[in-house]
From TrEMBL:
<feature type="domain" description="Ig-like">
    <location>
        <begin position="138"/>
        <end position="221"/>
    </location>
</feature>
<dbReference type="Pfam" id="PF07654">
    <property type="entry name" value="C1-set"/>
</dbReference>
<keyword id="KW-1015">Disulfide bond</keyword>
<dbReference type="InterPro" id="IPR003599">
    <property type="entry name" value="Ig_sub"/>
</dbReference>
<dbReference type="InterPro" id="IPR007110">
    <property type="entry name" value="Ig-like_dom"/>
</dbReference>
<feature type="domain" description="Ig-like">
    <location>
        <begin position="20"/>
        <end position="116"/>
    </location>
</feature>
<dbReference type="InterPro" id="IPR013783">
    <property type="entry name" value="Ig-like_fold"/>
</dbReference>
<dbReference type="Pfam" id="PF07686">
    <property type="entry name" value="V-set"/>
</dbReference>
<keyword id="KW-0325">Glycoprotein</keyword>
<feature type="signal peptide">
    <location>
        <begin position="1"/>
        <end position="19"/>
    </location>
</feature>
<dbReference type="InterPro" id="IPR036179">
    <property type="entry name" value="Ig-like_dom_sf"/>
</dbReference>
<protein>
    <recommendedName>
        <fullName>Ig-like domain-containing protein</fullName>
    </recommendedName>
</protein>
<keyword id="KW-0732">Signal</keyword>
<dbReference type="InterPro" id="IPR013106">
    <property type="entry name" value="Ig_V-set"/>
</dbReference>
<dbReference type="InterPro" id="IPR003597">
    <property type="entry name" value="Ig_C1-set"/>
</dbReference>
<dbReference type="InterPro" id="IPR051755">
    <property type="entry name" value="Ig-like_CS_Receptor"/>
</dbReference>
Length: 221
């Protein structure tokens, strides 16, 4: 399974005043480039005026205040609206991979900004539709399984639009010790002259294989 993701470390300082706690939905959503996406924030401020709510995007370590002053028209890509249930909604039209990040609504409470729980948006680049990821396990004998040595796993990624790639290995849902730096990645042009392929090798203790751990690799483009 191909995993295209952005890892986000949350470090926003959230101020909790005496006002109502902001709640945002959905907590996470995935979209393809060009889609329309919406996230909603439950706030008493929405009943008064949607403009009382502020919207922010956090990408990596940068927090960006969104300009939501544009109300209508083809040039308004980011707009706000009041939903039928009274929640405030943020609408983004024609999303692109650069729009991936965590979105927050916020309002002033006791002279401090109170932030919501946030909503993670991941936008898939259409160029990755034909990308495949395959994990090949070691061909082991009984003696190899009984040994205290290592076994080699191979992750083959095909159909890449760019050789820029990071591979991470997981065993039973947990990141393998050492992560991607312990594997070797090679990118090269495919036979069609337009796509790239990459191969990652990872050596693990035979004991890990004997334990029945499920192996997976994730390709981050």
């Amino acid at each position: 399974m191909l995993h295209i993701f952005i890892t986000v470390t949350l470090c926003l300082k959230v101020y909790r005043g005496e006002g109502a706690l902001l709640h945002q939905t959905p907590a996470q959503q995935f979209a393809a480039a060009g889609d329309l996406v919406e996230t909603f924030c439950s706030s008493s401020a929405c009943v008064v005026d949607t403009d009382l709510l502020r919207w922010f995007m956090k990408k990596d370590s940068e927090v960006i205040a969104l300009n939501t002053s544009c109300k209508a028209g083809p040039g308004c890509r980011v707009t706000t609206r009041r939903a039928s249930n009274g929640d405030c909604g943020l609408t983004i039209r024609g999303v692109q991979p650069v729009d991936s990040g965590v979105y927050y609504c916020a309002e002033y409470s006791s002279n401090a900004l109170e932030f919501s729980n946030g909503s993670l948006l991941t936008v898939r680049d259409n160029s990755t539709q034909n990308t495949t990821v395959t994990v090949m396990g070691p061909s082991v004998s009984g003696s190899a399984l009984d040994s205290k040595g290592t076994l080699t796993f191979v992750c083959l990624v095909r159909g890449l639009s760019s050789p820029a790639l990071r591979v991470q290995w997981f065993f039973s849902g947990h990141l393998a010790e050492g992560g991607a730096p312990s594997s070797w990645i090679e990118g090269q042009k495919g036979g069609d002259g337009e796509s790239y392929s990459a191969t990652s090798w990872l050596a693990v203790p035979a004991e890990t294989w004997r334990s029945g751990a499920v192996c997976a690799c994730a390709a981050q483009l």
